[in-house]
Amino acid sequence: MGITARRNGYGRQLGSFHTMAQFKGIGEISMTFIRAPYIECAATAEILAEVDDKAVAAREKNQLALAFHPELDDSAAVHEYFLKM
After folding, report:
1. Which residue of 32, 40, 65, 69 is 20 to 30 Å from 79, comparing CA positions?
2. Report field, pTM of the whole predicted structure over 0.85
């Protein structure tokens, strides 16, 4: 995927957090970040979500990159989005 990621972009384990944000094609969703990276540059990928002006979800063809853990929240919306890709 044509992206550059910043490892531990939001800090280490103590910098973990939970927030709500818009996800293109889904709407507002819950996002849990643990030692989360963020996407510094998306050369060829489409940015799907941002938190604090930093890209946290991107898609390129049949690939999906996430900086958060959708499996830790109650909604299956991101998983359903991925299956529809």
Report:
1. 40
2. yes
